[in-house]
Specification:
This protein is an alpha/beta fold and 397 residues long. The protein is built from 16 helices and 7 strands. One of its GO terms (cellular component) is cytosol.
Length: 397
Amino acid sequence: MPSRFELANAIRALSMDAVQKAKSGHPGAPMGMADIAEVLWNDYLKHNPEDPKWPDRDRFILSNGHGSMLLYSLLHLTGYELELEQLQAFRQLHAKTAGHPEYGYAPGVETTTGPLGQGLANAVGMAIAEKTLAAQFNRPGLDIVDHHTYCFAGDGCLMEGISHEVCSLAGTLGLGKLTVFYDDNGISIDGQIEGWFTDNTAKRFEAYGWHVIPNVDGHDPEQIKAAIELARTHEDKPSLIICQTIIGFGAPNKQGTEETHGAPLGEEEVAAARKQLNWPHAPFHIPESIYQAWDAREEGKQRQTEWQALLARYQQEYPDLAREFSRRTECKLPAELSSEAFIEKMQEKGETIATRKASLNCLNELGPQLPELLGGSADLAPSNLTFWSGAKPISRE
């Protein structure tokens, strides 16, 4: 049985090989966060590589999307339909493996990320979706919505203003099934961040109402595992796990520096990293024993089968709710909703009114027909008319 270190090194090797072959990319983050990813994906993440759209899967968001080879390596190793050839075609035209993850190409990519902080916002949105769906559909003993959202984020994500807005909201709403792993490596593409980013991140997130787990060695599987266990005990607030990592871990002459951030390591450093990591295998070669240890298909299939049995009981006891749940998770509009009829009704009066009033008319028509409709207006609802008749605010409860 391969060790955890060997399993993490499979991520490091694929990442540095793909970036080297593409002659561009970001090897540092995947190499630095490989140990965290190994523990999360092998011990905690609920997913089925054979059905990436399983409604009750856990969501994994790579907010620091420049480290995309971390995600592609994980998807390939765990058994998603992402062949080795796609990793070898990293950052090439028409490949599924774009330089930053893009939704709709590689299976298992939950959302497009790249602009720093965006993925963090997406993760908060997905955690809100889980909480609202659970409140609407779960019944005693029949929790058909019960999954976690995990997000990897770096210094750049937390520098962005959007991170303040969404993390404040997450704390206010008590999103206890959201866990963010902060890659605290002290390095950006410009170098040491201490000259321009000196926030006390732990206190910042505590002020938001988050549960903060600081000073976790991001290369120690036992510390990582203990932190995740602790985060999962706090169901009333989101958790931030602050992981101290070494960017480019394993590259002996460049690790811990910006040289690993946004450029290939170079042939000599890749060879040196192989020696440092005790990874004697050829580029893009993964031993069968490591593939077997990573393969998540059988466990994922079993967990989805158990969920489907729960859903079958739910369908018997709550058939109307079950039909509505299926409609939403299959991304279907209500059968009675006609876009042509809706547009005709909105235009029939021919009024000359403010745009915001026209928007409210649309919301008042759509709201009763689309119970999944959710929006916000940054504390301006009376002015911009976004609170349609019958709308209800979401809250911590």
